[in-house]
Amino acid sequence: MSDEEAKRKQDEINKRKAEVRKRLEEQSQKKAKKGFMTPERKKKLRLLLRKKAAEELKKEQERKAAERRKIIDQRCGQPKNLDGANEAELEKLCRDFHSRIERLEGDKWDLEHQIKMKDYQINELNIQVNDLRGKFIKPTLKKVSKYENKFAKLQKKAAEFNFRNQLKTVKKKEFELEDDKEKAEGEATAEEA
User: Fold this and answer.
1) Nearest to 10 by CA among 158, 18, 153
2) Cα dihedral: 98, 104, 105, 111 (round 10)
3) Per the UniProt record, which residue ranges are transmembrane (predicted)?
């Protein structure tokens, strides 16, 4: 009986497969008339592309995070276990970190200096090339207002004018100007007459 049941099951499976094949062939014939990219296929393709892109993006982010972690571990070293550390160990650890920071700061300064030197050399070489070609770079000029000089002169005159007005008037004759003496004499002779 088990052989007969197995045959029956196999026959049923084969019939189903045949039906599915027949349906697929009919569908493919209908679709062949419509064209290769039907809206359903386009939708499926878009979905697959989005999934693939999302997976790639996720893998890229994971890869970058791992690379970042690796660089941090490489530059900073492994985290130190400070639990149960005595004062001498902590002091030694601080000295190590201090010497490392000192070394890194020195390297940083050296690199910055090299960059400045390279920039200077590049600039000098560009100037030499332009000199050889006969082309000169026009320097960028500062924008200057036409009215600045006039305004400065006006301010200066105003300051002088204010200074004269703020001076105290002096009644003593020794500080008197010659013009003022002549006026005073003219007034005195007029009063006498």
Assistant:
1) 18
2) 170
3) none
- How far lies 173's CA from each of 57, 181, 183, 184, 191, in Å? 96, 8, 13, 10, 19
Instruction: Using alpha carbons, list the distances in angstroms from residue 12 to 3, 4, 8, 18, 22.
Output: 14, 12, 6, 10, 15
Q: How distant is the alpha carbon of residue 75 from its chain centre?
A: 24
Q: Which pTM value belongs to this model?
A: 0.34
The residue to which tokens 């000199």 are assigned: 131
Q: Mean pLDDT score of the chain, rounded to an integer? A: 80
Instruction: Give the C-alpha separation, 97 to 80, whole Å.
Output: 11
- What pLDDT does 117 receive? 97
State residue 141 phi and psi, 5-degree precision.
-95, 150
Tally the C-alpha atoms within 13 A of residue 152's C-alpha that lie toward its C-beta: 5
Residues 20-40 have pLDDT tens digits of 998 888 887 776 555 677 888
**Contact indicator for 136, 130 with CB cutoff of 8 Å:** yes
